[in-house]
Amino acid sequence: MITQQDVMEVLKTVKDPELGRSLVDLGMIRTVEVEGDKVKVVVALTIAGCPMKKRIVEDVRNAVKTLGVREVEVELTTMTPEEKEKIFGPKAKQVKEKKALKDVRHIIAVASGKGGVGKTTVAVNLAVALSKKGYKVGILDADIYGPNVHILMGLEGEKPFSRDQKLIPVERWGIKVMSFGFLAPEGQPIIWRGPLIHRALSDLAEVVDWGVLDFLVIDLPPGTGDAPLTVAQEFPLRGVVVVTTPQRLSIADVSRSINMFNELGTRIIGIVENMAYLKAGDQEIPVFGEGGGEKLAHELRVPFLGKIPLDPEISKSGDIGKPAALNPETPVGKIYAEIADKVVDKALEYEKLGSCGLKRV
Length: 361
Ligand SMILES: Nc1ncnc2c1ncn2[C@@H]1O[C@H](COP(=O)(O)OP(=O)(O)OP(=O)(O)O)[C@@H](O)[C@H]1O
Ligand SMILES: [Mg+2]
Prior knowledge:
Elements lengths: L3 H8 L17 E7 L2 E8 L7 H13 L5 E8 L2 H8 L2 H4 L9 E8 L7 H14 L4 E5 L7 H4 L8 E3 L2 E3 L1 E3 L2 E5 H4 L10 H14 L5 E7 L6 H9 L4 E6 L3 H17 L3 E6 L4 E3 L2 E3 L6 H8 L4 E4 L4 H8 L11 H23 L8
Helix pairs in contact: 5-13, 8-9
The chain binds adenosine-5'-triphosphate (ATP) and magnesium ion (MG).
């Protein structure tokens, strides 16, 4: 005899495809009725017409069927605003419309769980590759501890100017650049504490005049601390690009980072594997192990955006402030261009999906 309890137990294994948490934990299972070998489950979606609903229905049906049930009926309904607030917390309401960002179409953060994996290098080259494709692009350095986007963009010593109480980004190769590095005295560390980080970043979201942009790329500091958290809460992100290297250690950190964004209801654009191999003639030597990022993307059911080789040209071009992606004809330039294409595709797909399943509803 199958009980309601048995059904709830198997439903604990069914995750919301976007939030990565179990439907049971999310309070999305309204009722379960068992009648002999027939089961009816009512699932409350975050919004009606959610494009993910087909998959949720399938997953629920398949899970319940493992109990040997003959017939599974899945009915859909929608959560009340109160129910949503219970799950996502009052924070869900706090993502304010930022006037300064209203003409920015896609905001994409570049994150990683671990330091030094090449986030900033990927962020800058992604911005350049997008700009080379004809998009209007801005890049914001949100790494308040060690800002270096301005260095990679060849803008050391530059300062943004202000107009009508707004900060005007510095432009380079048609890309608008804003970095804490412009604001801090050269060579001096900035010591920020939690609440100040939050203030600084949320002020920055309001105060920079980006104008009309197709893409704003945000370079995050590593980890899951205050800064990535604040960015995900204060900027209406289209999604996050997560950078990893192939080592297992780095990969454990990436899973943590992805989980954090999942919990915050921010979509993952995909994983980039940096320093994936060393090219020697025609050979690709996997210095740090092979295919870790791709495997992880598969496991976590997020897109894989591509592999970037460990290439002295990449670090050299960073040092001299001329990102490798400026030349889309070189092998490395081509790789960045392909990654940019995938980012564009995903951004458009997520734009179409709207806030379905996410807390920004
Ligand atoms: N694919 C690559 N090939 C060679 N060198 C690279 C590559 N990617 C990044 N680097 C170099 O590795 C170093 C670290 O890169 P980067 O600053 O982009 O990492 P990060 O993840 O942003 O670091 P942090 O966590 O400190 O912000 C830099 O010197 C950079 O030039
Ligand atoms: Mg960095």
